Amino acid sequence: MSTLNRCSRCLLPETHETIFFDEAGVCNVCRQHEFKQNKIDWDKKKIELDELVEIYRGKYDYDCLVPFSGGKDSTWTLYYLVEHYKLKPLVVRFDHGFLRPNLIENTTRVLRKLGVDFHTFTPNWKVVQKLMLQSFLEKGDFCWHCHTGIFSYPMWVAIRYNVPLIFWGEPSSEYTSYYSYEQPEEVDEKRFNRYVNLGINSEDMLVRLQGMVDERDLKPFSYPP
Question: Which stretch of DSSP H or E encloses residue 65?
């Protein structure tokens, strides 16, 4: 009987995407966190952020766009941008259908406290059910619509409302090793296909569901050109 190997530090299993272990049994994600803590010049990064904010401040209807789940990362990001930089953000959420009542209450409290505009989208549940079944059968993960919607919908909104600056709560290197902290990680089509969509793009999914859904219903899940 084989044993499932786990990281000796964080206990992530060997089945976690992109994971591998070193001679000490520590996973590469943990090693990346060591790099984040010990080798990144955060003072320099703060100066870079200051300069980036000033490039876009006051140039558009919104200074930036913040994809917002209501979790700790996106909440802190939004708070910091509003309270520290005094920016006017457009806050965007893709509602995948599994938002808990207390999260919705917390979101309302945060939005009212900070005084920001909120844009939310909930996809057609009948389409979502078909997508969940198909992605579960193919990848063992029913939430293809979650992954693709959360990442692509804010990009679509940014293009539609002409908001070129987008702040995400964290990089993918927090959880995986598709990219490391040493690599610049741009939110583009390459990253989307590599990290987000489980290897199934919207055109692939449309072929799989041919005749089951209207092609127009999948457009919100498409990464913008």
Answer: strand 64-67
Task: Round to whole Å and give the CA distance between 1 and 221.
Answer: 42
Token readout for 98 is 């599994």
Type and span of the H or E element at 172: none
Q: What is the CA radius of gyration of the chain?
A: 19
Would you state the structure tokens that stand for residue 81, as one six-digit string?
Answer: 């941008």
- Are 59 and 162 within 8 A, CB to CB? no
CA distance 125 to 95: 11
Yes or no: say if 200 and 193 are a contact pair by the CB < 8 Å rule. no
Burial degree of 38 (CB within 10 A; 0-12, 13-18, 19+):
exposed
């990089």: which residue's tokens? 171
Compute mean pLDDT per 10 residues along the chain, 225 residues long, and list them.
Answer: 88 91 94 90 94 96 96 94 98 94 94 97 92 91 91 93 92 84 79 85 84 62 46
- 8 Å CB contact between 86 and 111: no
Q: Which of 183, 186, 173 is nearest to 34 (CA)?
A: 173
What class, spelled out in words, does domain 42-221 have in CATH? alpha beta
For residue 24, the tally of other CB atoms under 10 A from its CB is: 10
Task: Map out the domains of the chain as residue ranges.
Answer: 1-39, 42-221
Residue type at 166 in one-letter notation = I
Please report, in angstroms and rounded to a whole number, the separation of the first and last CA atoms in the chain: 49
- For 110-163, what is the HEC assignment? HHHHHCCEEEEECCCHHHHHHHHHHHHHHHCCCCHHHHHHHHHHHHHHHHHCCC
